[in-house]
Design brief:
By secondary structure, the chain is an all-alpha fold. The chain contains seven helices and no strands. The protein folds into two domains: 69 residues, 434 Repressor (Amino-terminal Domain) (Orthogonal Bundle), CATH 1.10.260.40; 33 residues, no CATH class. Helix 1 packs antiparallel against helix 5 and helix 4 packs antiparallel against helix 5. The longest helix is centred in the last third of the chain and has 15 residues. It is elongated, with a radius of gyration of 16 Å.
Length: 124
């Protein structure tokens, strides 16, 4: 599941909306929406995110959070380290090989480091 998929499922559950009802309302199939929630599809388009924001009638911070989560939810990411240092390439390769073995605490700690350097808020 991606961060965007988890948030989408949380919003649907909080409002008692089924996959089928939401899919019909925003113009996609229930199968696509399910795949998006479970991380079996790439990150949603900006246009789809806007339809979801409108569907749930969210504003300001929550809308921005959905947009940010969508950008951070591609389950098949490619990291291009061309032109970076050898250590940056090593980091990308090691992370790609070992991410599945990391625990939640380790992932949270790594995200906290990246958030400091990227100016983002720490994950909840």
């Amino acid at each position: 599941m991606t961060p965007f998929g988890a948030k989408l499922r949380e919003l649907r559950a909080a409002r008692g909306v089924t996959l089928k009802a939401m899919a019909e309302a925003i113009g996609v199939s229930a199968a696509y929406l399910s795949a998006l929630e479970h991380g079996r599809r790439g990150a949603p388009t900006w246009y789809l995110v806007q339809r979801i924001i409108t569907f749930f009638n969210v504003i300001w911070d929550e809308a921005e959070e959905l947009e940010r989560l969508a950008m951070e939810s591609d389950p098949r990411i490619v990291v291009d380290t061309a032109g970076l240092t050898p250590k940056a390439t090593q980091l990308a390769n090691r992370l790609a090989r070992q991410i599945g073995a990391l625990g939640e605490a380790e992932i949270t700690a790594m995200l906290a480091v990246l958030n400091v350097h990227g100016g983002k808020k720490p994950p909840r």
